[in-house]
Every structure is written in structure tokens, then in C-alpha cells.
Input
Amino acid sequence: MSHRLLALALTCLLGAGFSSVAAAEKKKKDEEPSGPKLLMTQLGKVILDEPFTPESWQKNWGKSWNKGDWQIMGDQLRVAEKAADGHHPEIGYNPKGSGGPVLHNVVVQCKFKYDGAKWMGFGFTDKEHVARIMINDGGFELVKMSGIGGTTKGVKLDRQSMNWDKSKWYTMTIELLGNEIIANVDDQHVLYGTADGLDIDKNRFTMIVGGEYGWYDELKIWEALPSPTWEKKKLSLIAQKEKRK
Output
């Protein structure tokens, strides 16, 4: 075999080898579970994967709401307040009620669109309200809640000023571990808080809206596990929080 033919054969073999390696790496990457970028926690078992189709809406939420106008539109959830109800729309997911795990340490990720609503948010409740992430015209905030009904109270833990694009979808990631909580919008705007009373079993994850419209899509909830790198990252978050005061 001539030197030219030998070189050509070696080139083909090497090329095929590189292609195989690249294909294997791509397959491995495709098979790896995708998930949110986390600061305080690691993902545990999936508790809920909610695409907001008519079928999943009926299965996962059923009759868990009786106030407000909730509509599945194009596999997205649109919510509007009804003045005659005398109460803002609120819906809750309770995995324990269907034999699932209790909500204690969790990661939540959900897309949302602030499309003309007065405010909207996410929350956790037990016998009383536990915590909320509230979105309004001026930004979003972390709130430690207590009480129920007429005794409801909230203490702000952290706040970030924001100018929302009402035509844009944003991604909210919530990490709740022990008595610490993080709310993260688009991996860019991160709130941090800690308060007694967070480290309990929660019976519901809630979504709430005031006015019209608030939109939700692609809601996922996981059990949360501690991250070994959290203590180092926390120092930076606390420093950022101090600058926002």
C-alpha cells in the first residue's frame, strides 16, 4: 500500500473513531436529566411534573379551587380574579392526599407571565400560611407567612425591584430547605431568606393571582436534598441581600 493510501486509511479510521466518541457523548448528554440550576439544594425524587394539559389539570388539581377563573389555554394556565368571589384565586397541590410524599424540603420550578395582573405568586401552606413568593408591578419578594383567613400576616424576608415585560415568560425556581428559602428568576435575580417556621411539613403548594391575567406553565416539584457547596455560596447571597436593603 502506498504512503498516500495508508495516510488516507488512517485518516478515515481516526475520523470514524472521533465521530463515535462524539456520538456517544451526545447520547450521554441527551440522557442526562435536565433540571434547574440550584444554589442551596440538589434534586431528589420528582413529586410533580405538570404540563397544564386539560388531562393533567383534571388529574392533579381537580376540585382544589372554587374561586377565580382558571382556564387551560394552549397547554398553559391562565388565571383571572372574579370580583363577585370576594377572594383572590388560589389553587393548591397536595401530593399526600393522593398517596404521594409530604412537602417538606422541596425544589419548585415554574414558568410564569405577569400579563396585566395586579399581583401573582407561589406559596406553601399547612394549617396556616407558611411562605409566599409575591410578584407585583415593582418587583418580587420573599415573605414569611403566618395565620389563616382574617389572621393572615406576612413578614418580608427579601425583595428585588423588577420591571416586568408583560409579554415575556419568566422562570421561577424556589428552593426550600429547613428554615431557609431561595427564590430565583431566570438564574439572574436571586432572593434569600431564613425564618423559624419554614422547617415543617407543608400540606399544599399554592398558586395565587390578583386581577387579570396571571399565567403559569411547566410546573415541576422535586424533593430537595442538601448541597455540599451551599455554605460557601450562601456568603455571596447574603452579601448581595445586604446591598439591596
